Every structure is written in structure tokens, then in C-alpha cells.
Amino acid sequence: MFIVGIDLRNDYSQVCYYNAAKSEPESVPFQSPAADLRVPTVVLREYKNAMGWMAGEVAVSCSALGEGVLFNNLLEAARLGTMVTKEDISVTPSQLLMVYLTFLLQSAKRAFGGEEEPDKICIAIDDYCTQILDVIDEAVGLMGIAKDKVIYSSHVESFVYYALCQKKDLWKNDNVVFDYGKDGLVYSRMATAPYGGSTIVMSERLDLRAEVGYTTDNDTLEETLLKKAQELFDRKLISTVYLTGEGFEGSFSCDRFINFVCNRRRAFAGQNLYVKGACYQAYESAVGGRFKDFVVCCNERLPAGIEMKICDRGVDKILRMVRPGVNWYKAGCSYDFIVDDCREIELFLSPVGRRDKKLIKIPLTDFPVREDKASRINVSLEFTDDTCCHLTVTDKGFGEFVKSSGKVIKEDIQL
After folding, report:
1. pLDDT digit string, tens, across residues 51-91
2. Do the Cβ atoms of 381 and 330 come closer than 8 Å?
3. DSSP letter (8 states) at residue 29
4. Closest listed residue to residue 301, CA positions, set 186, 132, 160, 168
């Protein structure tokens, strides 16, 4: 089985595959001045060949030789969502990402030693938003990969998957990540707690880049990092600390900070935390089993499930439309119902960690009154983040017998 994890960033990216023999992800190496696991997130279009595209280090080298137009900042282009034009060459952000993702998958194939297509891919990004995700999803479609083979994750969620795939002693108490990159510090924390026979997993992400910016002055940096770590660790029981990001490489030397985070805690440093976490997540999505007793509640996960009261063959039932704890991107759903003496819809919100449910009634008074079983409606749910559900109810009439009124009811439900 070919399982792939990708850490996709604006400056550089990484890719790995799941090594079944070792039961863990295997990073794909690249030739790069920064590190052999990272490769620049750039693509190049050759001047002399409109179909000549390349990516990564080769693209950088060819650009230096004046052989083509170099496109960088691919995720920023995805966020803007507009055509990218350089030297009279115009291309969409999804096309640029298609070239780059194809390059990463081909690299993973060579390292894996096979020619089969991936069974599951997880792409992790730091800025988890609809604008970027939609463009990546479009790029995946251009590659001819089935949409159900690809899932998306944030860096925090990838960290959670990585941490939980380690020995239990490492995550029995809180786990934290100091991600110190060229734009400053980002801090993430994961905590677990018993929940109805399972384990609930909670996380938080603090963007501290405005407080702890990037600097090569180790004396200043050490004071800032130490003070911030002492503040963040206060009254918290932490088992494991992960250090990642370019700022912790090279000339980094802050002994007092390192001694503090390592005091009665396990500490690990490396640059492939997120890509391996994404690979673990892809494996879990494809195979399952390891996380069956966990309820993961990251910011990208829905904090509440949505259920609907229905009648099936004369028996009242509850239809679970969306489960709590699923990733909000692609969590949307759509159902058709035949209306039988129904003038309102009853929905229930079931928040994670609480037994009580919240009842929400959606009146159908705007729809025309028809005989029982002579109306059909569609109920669809869409999400643009983890806090709000966009509900749409559409009158569909009843086929050729009763035409639709064209009426639509829209409601936003806060989760």
C-alpha cells in the first residue's frame, strides 16, 4: 500500500511515504543547501517549450541559467486565487500547484520503489483556510487523482497525529511544539483526557511571531524564548517537547532555554514532524484502527455533530448527518427527503464532551403546502470553518408530477 504525507509550504516542502516494514513514515531526501529533506516550493516554465515544466532544485538551477520563468510563493498565489503572470506567461495557481505536487509524488514513488498510484495522500498546510484548500483540491483534480484519495490537515493536526503515534509514555501528559521559523515562533500544545471510554484529544495553537521574531542574536533570543517557555509551561504537566523550524538550526545556541524545556521532560528536535504526522494521518484514513479510541478535537475539527429527526417506514429515528470531531473541510453532506405532514425540520447539535444536545427548529412555512408524500426537499450542510454550518433547504417538488416552487431556505448554525 502506497501512503503519502506532504508538508506543503510557501518556501519549501517535504514528502514522505509509509514504510510498512518499519511501521512508520520514511522521509524522501532531496539535494538542498538547507537540509536534504526539504525542497524549494517553486516551479519553472521553460522559455523554449510551453509544455516544459520542472520543480524544486532543478527549477532553481535552470532559473539561474536563464532557461525559464521561475514561479514561487505558490500558496500565497493560491490564497489570492488570481491568475499569475510573469514575463508574459500566465498560469492559474492550481496549475502551478499541479506541477509541484506531481513532482513531489514522483519523488515519493522513486523512493518507495514502485509505480503504483497513491492509495491515500494527506497534505498538511500551516494556514488552513478555504481559499488555499480549494485551489489545492483543484490541483489534485487536474492531476487525475480521485478526490476521495486525498485528505487535508493543518500543522497542529499533523503534530497531534505524530505525537499519538509515539509510545504512550511520551503523550500521557501534555505535548508541545516550539516551531521557530524565519518569520518567528508558533507554539502548539496537545492534551488528552478520558471521555466515555475513549480518549479526547484537545489542542491549541498560539501565533507568537509578533512577540518572538526571528533573530540570530542568541543572547536576546535566549532571554525571550526562556521567558516565554516559563510562561507557557506554568502549572502545566508536560511530558514531551518538540523543537522544529529553521530557527533551531545552524548557529542556534540557547543552553538555558534547552535546559529548561528538557528538565524532567523528553525533548526532540527535527524538521520532519509535520510531514510524518501527515503520513500517519493518511495511513489512519486508509487503514484505520490505531485511532479508534480517540476523539480528536483540533481547530480544524467540528466541535459538535449534527443530527436530524426523521421518520423511516413509520419509525422515528435520528439521522447522524455529520459526526463530531471530523475535519470541517469536505464534511458537507446532502440528503433528499419526502415530506409527510412536516412544517419544520428538527436538528440536534451534539457537542463533544457533553451529553446534552441542543435542539434547532427550521420552519418550512415558506414552502407551498401539498398533499402528504407529494413534496421532496433537499437538506444540505456546508462548512467554511469549524465554527459555522451553512444549512440550505431546497423545495424540489415531486419529479414530473409536482414542479418545484424554487424556494430556498438558508440558515447559519453556530457550532
Report:
1. 899 999 999 999 999 999 999 999 999 999 999 999 989 99
2. no
3. P
4. 160
What is the pTM assigned to this prediction? 0.91
Task: Name the pLDDT band for 34 (thresholds 50, 70, 90).
Answer: very low
Query: In the chain, count of helices (H) and strands (E)?
Result: 9, 25
Number of domains the chain is built from: 3
Cell numbers placing 11: 518556501
CA 245 from centre of chain = 19
Residue 12 falls inside a structural domain:
yes
Decide which of 153, 175, 207 is a domain's last residue: 153
The residue segments making up the domain with residue 219 are 158-276
Strand-pair category, 304-312 with 358-363 = unpaired
Within a domain: 178: yes
Q: Among 114, 130, 153, identify where a domain stops.
A: 153
Helical H runs in 143-272?
155-164, 168-171, 218-233, 255-262
Place of cell 407551498: 368
Whether the CB-CB separation of 335 and 378 falls below 8 Å is answered with yes
pLDDT tens, residue by residue, 324-380: 888 999 899 999 998 877 788 999 999 887 778 999 999 988 888 877 677 889 999
Tell me the sheet residues that pair with 318. 309
Look at residue 294 and tell me if it is in a domain: no
